[in-house]
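Ticket #55: bound-state structure for iron/sulfur cluster.
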Amino acid sequence: MATVVKGLCQGCGICTQVCPRGAIRIIANVAVIDGDMCDDCEECVFACPNGSISG
Ligand code: SF4
Ligand code: SF4
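RESOLUTION: The complex was predicted; output attached.
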């Protein structure tokens, strides 16, 4: 699954809006991906302005 690189995420929430499966939530200002819901489409990887999600 896609993973968030801690320390780079700014908690902007853009990834939560592009994820077609609703697999990303912002918790304590950091994106958290639910591995059971993620299907590795990598939309979030391309959308993150900080490059903080790796596919
Ligand atoms: S788009 Fe990137 S910086 Fe914004 S919340 Fe998601 S992972 Fe964090
Ligand atoms: S890879 Fe796709 S399904 Fe997985 S968290 Fe990112 S946008 Fe959502």
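RESOLUTION NOTES: The domain at 3-54 is CATH 3.30.70.20 (Alpha-Beta Plaits).
TICKET STATUS: resolved
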